Design the sequence.
């Protein structure tokens, strides 16, 4: 369990580092929306996330309903189902818990 926890933290740190490199604005988001960004990056990787051009633009501009709509209508949402619903809601409402 300790090794699993350490590996998890390394992966989360790597997701944060990739977001810092590619999306310098993401740390200006509130904590809950930052968690959404880390969660998505952790699971799909930064290269796939970067393909969500319209959604990322909406997030950067604070248009969270539009961002959540973009997330909802993606192939990713069809693939991850319940997780996508949770993350879309967290992006829309700013509550990640």
Sequence:
């Amino acid at each position: 369990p300790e090794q699993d926890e350490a590996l998890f933290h390394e992966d989360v740190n790597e997701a944060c580092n990739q977001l810092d490199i590619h999306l310098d604005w993401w740390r200006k988001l509130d904590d809950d929306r930052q968690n959404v960004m880390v969660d998505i990056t952790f699971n799909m990787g930064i290269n796939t996330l970067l393909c969500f051009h319209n959604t990322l633009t909406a997030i950067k501009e604070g248009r969270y309903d539009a961002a959540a709509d973009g997330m909802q209508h993606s192939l990713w949402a069809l693939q991850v189902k319940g997780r996508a619903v949770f993350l879309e809601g967290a992006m829309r409402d700013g509550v990640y818990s």
Remarks:
- The radius of gyration is 13 Å.
- DSSP finds seven helices and no strands in the chain.
